[in-house]
Specification:
Helix content: 40-55%
Radius of gyration: 19 Å
Strand content: 5-15%
CATH superfamily of one domain: NAD(P)-binding Rossmann-like Domain
Order of helices and strands: EHEHEHHEHEEHEEEHEEHEHHH
């Protein structure tokens, strides 16, 4: 077990959506020596920036959240960038942690790394049993390479590096930009704007049949802290809630909660993405006692209320 209270901690991506909630959780725990490198001062696609963060801040714990991410549209438009930036940032940071003797390295992967037709619920043992869904494959494979690096470094160097696989996150402070957002913030914004503009319909991608699992961001932050403190094994660990909902049902639920009563039109010429996503979350509970505690409807209401109470976010779409 690692006691985080007196450790020097570096959190890449600590200024982002998940990072903000993780920072609050660490500060609530009593951690005070935390550094959050931000872009462009620290561009981790550049080796000099990677070296500088280890030399200047001497972390004992590295939590790597930083990633170039987005929904289906963003993945389709930027496959090269999503592969290169995510792979090179992680590879260089993990190598830097090894060279500088970091005590604990925690790397966040992605549910997109799973094969397109993984049996439900997704078990960590199935991670290598097929190719990811095509629109997410460059991002998913880049992240999966970091799992192999963590396992290889543990085997050769005895490095305490662990790899977590969070499912789709949502919550206050999410990205509501329709060009790059994920499904929940995109649906909230579309419905809210339709209500504001007195529109009688919204158009959504696909046919609504795919299913997704969602984890409230505060629960995700708690899971990361527990894994950082208590987990020290090579096997990857799912972080999720164990629930599953179709995109069609999700859209109906968000429409109701936002007050949109018009038609939902499905554009089947656009991709659906992975057919189903739902995790087996037993390993996280067994290994470090993590179980999601926020009911989905409660988290969804909090997310919508946050969006509705931030007019600047509603105008720009960005958090």
């Amino acid at each position: 077990m690692i006691h985080l209270l007196d450790k020097r901690i570096v959190v890449t991506g600590g200024a982002g959506f998940l990072g903000n909630h993780l920072m609050r959780r660490l500060e609530k725990l009593g951690c005070r020596d935390i550094f959050v490198p931000t872009y462009p001062d620290y561009d981790f696609t550049r080796i000099d920036a990677v070296e500088r963060v280890f030399v200047e801040h001497r972390p004992e714990v590295l939590i790597h959240l930083a990633a170039v991410v987005g929904g289906i549209g963003a993945n389709r438009a930027n496959p090269g960038r999503f592969f290169y930036d995510n792979a090179i940032m992680g590879i260089q940071l993990i190598e830097g942690a090894r060279r500088h003797g970091v005590e604990k390295t925690v790397v966040l992967g992605t549910i997109c790394a799973y094969p397109k037709f993984t049996p439900v619920p997704f078990r960590e043992e199935d991670l290598w049993n097929g190719y990811p869904e095509e629109t997410n494959a460059p991002y998913g494979i880049a992240k999966k390479a970091l799992l192999m690096q963590c396992q290889a470094y543990r085997k050769q160097y005895g490095m305490n590096a662990v790899f977590l696989l969070p499912v789709n996150l949502y919550g206050q402070g999410d990205n509501f930009d329709l060009e790059s957002s994920h499904v929940i913030p995109a649906l909230i914004r579309k419905c809210a704007e339709a209500v504001d503009g007195d529109q009688d319909e919204i158009v959504l991608w696909g046919d609504g049949s795919p299913t997704r699992e969602f984890l409230y961001v505060e629960d995700a932050a708690e899971g990361i802290v527990l894994a950082t403190e208590h987990y020290d094994k090579p096997e990857p660990v799912n972080l999720g809630s164990g629930m599953e909902i179709s995109i069609r049902d999700l859209a109906t639920k968000i429409a109701t909660l936002t007050g949109f009563s018009g038609r939902i039109v499905w554009d089947a010429t656009q991709p659906n993405g992975q057919p189903r996503r739902c995790l087996d979350v037993t390993r996280a509970e067994r290994e470090f006692g993590f179980r999601a505690t926020t009911p989905f409807d409660v988290g969804l209401r909090k997310t919508i209320e946050w969006y509705q109470s931030h007019p600047l976010v509603r105008q720009s779409g960005a958090s």
